[in-house]
Amino acid sequence: MFSPNIFDTSPSMFESELTERLRIDDDYDTKSGTEMDAPSGDDQDPSQRPKRKRYHRHTQRQIQEMEAFFKECPHPDDKQRKELGRELGLEPLQVKFWFQNKRTQMKAQHERHENAMLKAENEKLRAENNRYKEALSNATCPNCGGPAAIGEMSFDEQHLRIENARLREEIDRIAGSAAKYVVKPMITSFPHLPGGAFNFGTQSGFVGEMYGGGGGDLLRSVSWPTEADKPMIVELAVAAMEELMRMAESGEPLWVPGENSMDALNEEEYLRTFTRGIGPKPLGLRSEATRDSAVIIMNHVNLVEILMDVNQWSRVFCGIVSRL
Length: 324
What we know:
This protein is mostly helical. Among the domains are: 60-146, Arc Repressor Mutant, subunit A, CATH 1.10.10.60; 295-323, no CATH class. The protein has 11 helices and 5 strands; from the N terminus they run αββαααααααββαβαα. The strands form 2 sheets. It has a 3-stranded antiparallel sheet. A two-stranded antiparallel ribbon has the order 1-2. A hairpin with a 5-residue loop joins β3 (255-257) and β4. The protein is rod-shaped.
């Protein structure tokens, strides 16, 4: 049994007791209780060493009963503490401190568990973020093989870039195949054409005559290329393709801004930049070229078919075709 005056000590004793109990780990419940204070300085014999504080431990039954009550009511009032203390043979203040320590312990356990879960989730998100960063830094376009541009262009623009890259690869492949058949240097004129074949005159009806009357007879008089001329024809085709690519990618001074946001070809600059693959320009032939860029709703294959079929491009580009 405890002495009745054991709780008549100063409040500092209970504060020190509470501080001491807060340092106790999860097994504090087997050690909770009260401390017996040493005698005061006036009553203590100077020749004797100070006595160590006695620590009262609750019995197993008291702990079990208070834990069961804690599950039902973690914050008992004064009446409940007195009744519980009377049943267990404890003072209400002892019961109060036990419940305070229990609540502190449960709160600490909950915080440790929550912190562990948050830390694990944070590590998981950090690892996932690093994987995404690495994947984005090493991302490549599956079609063109270049670095992937994410969020920088629209879907249509990205699709057009992919198609352009594929067409460039196709052009390079065709150019490489055509280069195998080039066996002699570029010549400046067709050997099978007569000397005055391109001298059609300067009359205004040149185009009509070329496709209608005398021009048709002249074209029929031109002999067809032989097998020996095929390498030269292939080389001319490759040169024309390269010229087209350079003209499409060039700006001023080759192209001069014109009307309706279109660029007009500077013929003088063109003649200085590109050499004539089939000889000098025939007399009376006037060259005109304009360019413009737009996005069309059409597959590139269909567009190439239109350009290669005279019946189709004459209908599509009827505004610039006189007659056939």
